[in-house]
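Minimal example, chain plus adenosine-5'-diphosphate.
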Amino acid sequence: KPILEIKNLEKVYNETTHALQGMNVSFHEGEFVVIIGPSGAGKSTFIRCINRMIDPSQGEIVFDGIHMEKMRGKSLRKQRSMIGMIFQHYNLIGRTNVIKNVLHGRLGHMSLMNSLCGRFSKEDIQEAATLLKQVGLDEQMYKRADELSGGQMQRVGICRAIIQHPKLLLADEPIASLDPHSANKVMDTLYKMTCERGLTCIVNLHQVDFAKKYATRIIGIKAGRIVYDGTPNDLTDEM
Ligand code: ADP
Ligand code: ADP
């Protein structure tokens, strides 16, 4: 049974831009899927529809057996707490230290009172520290996030997503702002951290070489439609 099923998903912006034109696709446990396609193909729109940062115009989004396409309020927040997000620009709080940034991944699981006061449990703090060690940032734990390099910031972003204990991880252009060395390190980290946990990961990339290096499955999107869905090996050059 798939962890995520997308049926006939469409997104129209401003009644004119057909960003997604009937997407049908399913994702299974443990897959590391890379979505590739030129700028404007609809990759970002696709990711944002899945976690309902934007409303789809039509279609179904079934995550963990539950329809999310029309969900709102508390039930949407609960579903979202099971979806980890990784962003191109990291979305860390710069003036806050690294370990607290990681702990923010727990907020969706905490009582309102504890989350407002930033009262994290001992277990959460221990886990945050362990994750930071695993991604090679034990020495940066108490630095302000804005003192880190881009590659380091994204590794913090990965820890923040993992500590959520999500069933699905979505990454929208996680390495687009990084040099090749840091990009490799971030992709290695993302791959390792998700594989170890058997997590399903969907990553938007525009670099085909990185897609081929890491993906267990590649989905090619052009003009809001899926034009390729298969193994990295069968991908032809024109994608
Ligand atoms: P990609 O991530 O592959 O670069 P996007 O999903 O960002 O593609 O964009 C798909 C299409 O939707 C493009 O034509 C883009 O200009 C348009 N688009 C994206 N976001 C918006 C928005 N908020 N309002 C209007 N049009 C948008
Ligand atoms: P990256 O993933 O970006 O390559 P590394 O962990 O390999 O990060 O860091 C390489 C070294 O460069 C580290 O010692 C790091 O502290 C340092 N470094 C790089 N950029 C910065 C920066 N903007 N501020 C502080 N240190 C930096």
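The first helix runs from residue 43 to 50. Strands lie at 4-13, 17-27, 32-36, 58-63, 66-67, 83-86, 168-172, 200-204, 217-222, 225-230.
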